[in-house]
Specification:
single chain; alpha/beta; 11-stranded parallel sheet; 13 strands; about 45% helix; globular
Length: about 525
């Protein structure tokens, strides 16, 4: 609800700005009186014309017509956006009783889903117990076979007695000689993980995740010493549990080294909003910058970035992938970071659900991060046509562009992207309500290297785009591998055009969502 109101307010402000600009331009083009006749009041008669005579040239009239056409289109489009946003707001007929009944229905649905999920979890736990029991049986059988092998190998034959006889008389016979072998029994051997060498345990630990390594360090002193090896901490991933700044500092002092390449942490966004420190600070990043020169990827999930604790010059220059998922970023922060060239080697940037990213930051990203190959702006509604123009004109190395739920994206912005980003192999514009077949035709014509195109839940797309695809791909060999189409009234399920496309593109996977 708050996001809709914010969008509506932005649209109203944009409409007022367009109207003020149109009035100013028209006043500027109107010009001054071509000739002013100075005369007294008594000299003005009915036969004399008015002293204020305005004359406009043909060029001025043409310029006025062009500006009128431009501002009329802009104002009408913005007004349609306002109408669309108003329709999304709750209606006046929605009383408190109806809302309460709706909440009760949602609670009932949630309870049903929770019970179903609980049953699935219990079923999964039973299957897991059966698998664990089967693994234990296999291990016991292997140990038993190995113990039996060693027992058989070391056991000797039982005691035997062989009499020695001959034809000589009994008096001359020597005493009977018997050969006896003392039977020995080998002790049963048992194999335990504690009997393994440190190198084997280290090899096992190399296949564990970060949580398992931290738990293994608490088993015994020997394992704690083994988990301190730097090769185990190449990837530090703690994105399933909230990590405080103090806890992260302790982990960094113990395990961060030159081998660290990936750091994924989940912050405490809900705690940080209550005037507490975020889970990443400037001093910690400086420590990582000094001791981890090979760090390539940083991912922050549900974190609060504050200028008080995180300065622009703190990021290591070796970072090539930066992901800020559902993070709160102050306005203009990216502009100050990029001015210091701290992220000059950035190849991947993910800003999913970062609603506080301003248009100034997006423009700075396009102007400074020229090496970007993957850009994710999903669920970002602050972009405008100028933003998409900057993306298309500055980021020529882009290979993947994610613009899901970018409500401001229109056909003109999509056409600019298709015209200038010829290296794109993946384009995600799902849930973009303003995209129509007109914009998609430029995508199919111009993006010859496109392999994945996602158009799920785009209501403005019809079967005309399928006809465009068939006309293009009949005579040209393109590398499209995956096409996700919307499932709407305009493109229903089991559509004949989709079957024709599957026949025309046998190597392309076509699905509907």
């Amino acid at each position: 609800m708050a996001d809709r109101i914010t969008q509506l307010q932005d649209a109203v402000n944009q409409l007022a700005e367009h109207m003020c600009n149109s009035i100013g331009v028209l006043q500027q083009l109107a010009g001054n009186p071509s000739e002013t006749v100075s005369a007294g009041v008594g000299d003005i008669t009915e036969d004399k014309p008015s002293p204020f005579i305005y004359s406009l040239t043909h060029e001025q009239n043409k310029a006025i017509d062009e500006h009128l056409t431009l501002f009329v289109s802009v104002i009408s489009r913005t007004a349609k956006d306002i109408d669309f946003l108003i329709e999304l707001l709750p209606s006046e007929d929605s009383t408190a009783e109806l809302q309460l009944a709706s909440l009760h229905r949602l609670e009932e649905d949630n309870e049903g889903a929770a019970s179903k999920l609980s049953g699935l979890v219990q079923q999964g736990e039973r299957l897991l117990e059966q698998i664990e029991q089967a693994l234990c049986d296999i291990a016991e059988t292997q140990l038993h076979l190995r113990s039996s092998y060693y027992t058989t190998l070391h056991n000797t034959t039982t005691t035997t007695t062989t009499p020695v006889t001959s034809d000589i008389s009994d008096d001359d016979k020597p005493p009977s000689v018997s050969v006896s072998v003392v039977e020995t029994s080998a002790a049963r051997t048992s194999v335990s993980i504690l009997d393994l060498s440190d190198s084997l345990i280290l090899e096992i630990f190399l296949h564990l995740d970060t949580y398992s390594l931290l738990n293994s360090a608490r088993v015994c002193k020997r394992w704690n010493t083994i988990t301190m090896h730097n090769s185990l901490w190449k990837n530090f991933v703690l994105d399933g549990q909230k990590v405080t700044l103090r806890k992260l500092w302790n982990l960094a002092r113990c395990h961060f080294s030159q081998s660290l390449e990936t750091m994924h942490i989940q912050g405490c966004a809900g705690i940080a909003k209550n005037n507490s420190k975020p889970s990443l600070s400037d001093s910690l990043l400086n420590f990582i910058r000094r001791d981890c020169p090979n760090l390539k990827s940083i991912k922050l999930f549900s974190s609060v970035i504050s200028e008080q604790y995180l300065l622009a010059t703190s990021f290591p220059p070796s970072v090539e992938c930066l992901e800020l998922v559902n993070c709160s970023v102050p306005k203009g922060w990216f502009q100050r970071v990029l001015q210091t060239e701290a992220l000059k080697n950035l190849r991947t940037l993910n800003l999913t659900h970062c609603h506080t990213i301003s248009q100034v930051d997006l423009t700075a990203i396009c102007c400074q991060c020229r090496k970007l190959e993957i850009l994710n702006l999903n669920h970002n509604y602050r972009g405008t046509d100028s933003t998409y123009r900057a993306i298309s004109h500055k980021l020529h190395n882009l290979k993947e562009l994610h613009l899901s739920r970018n409500i401001p994206l229109t056909d003109s912005g999509l056409e600019m992207i298709a015209r200038n980003l010829g290296k794109l192999t993946l384009l995600d514009i799902s849930n973009c309500t303003k995209v129509t077949d007109t914009g998609l035709s430029s995508v199919f014509h111009l993006l010859i290297n496109l392999e994945v195109l996602i158009l799920a839940r785009c209501p403005g797309i019809s079967t005309d785009c399928l006809h465009c695809v068939k006309s293009i791909y009949e005579n040209n060999q393109r590398c499209l591998r995956t096409l996700v189409l919307p499932l709407t009234d305009k493109i229903p399920a089991n559509c004949a055009d989709i079957d024709d496309m599957r026949t025309l593109l046998p190597h392309c996977v076509i699905i509907q969502e």
